[in-house]
Amino acid sequence: MKRFSALLPARIAVIAGFFLLAFVFSHCKTPPAATPLKPVQPPFLWENANVYFLLTDRFNNGTMGNDVSFGRTDPSAKLRGFMGGDIKGISQKIEEGYFDKLGITAIWFTPVVEQIHGQVDEGTGPTYGYHGYWTKDWTRLDPNFGTEQELAEMVDLAHRHGIRVLLDVVINHTGPVTEQDPLWADWARTGPRCVYKGYESTVTCTLVDNLPDIKTESDQPVDLPPFLLEKWKKEGRLAREMAELDAFFQRTGYPRAPRFYIIKWLTDYIRKYGVDGYRCDTAKHIEENVWAELRKEADIAFRDWKKANPGKVLDDNEFYMVGEVYFYQISGGRLYDFGDRKVDYFSHGFSSLINFELKSDANRDYESIFSKYSSLLYGPLKGKSVLNYLTSHDDGEPFDKKRERPFEAGTKLLLCPGAAQVYYGDETNRSLIIEGTSGDATLRSFMNWDQFGGSSSGFAVREVLEHWQKLGRFRRAHPAVGAGIHQMLSKQPYVFKRTYQATAFADVVVVGLDLPKGKKELNVQGIFSEGATLRDYYSGQQVTVDKGKATLTTDFGIVLLGM
Question: For residues 492 and 512, is the Cβ–Cβ distance under 8 A?
Answer without folding.
Answer: no
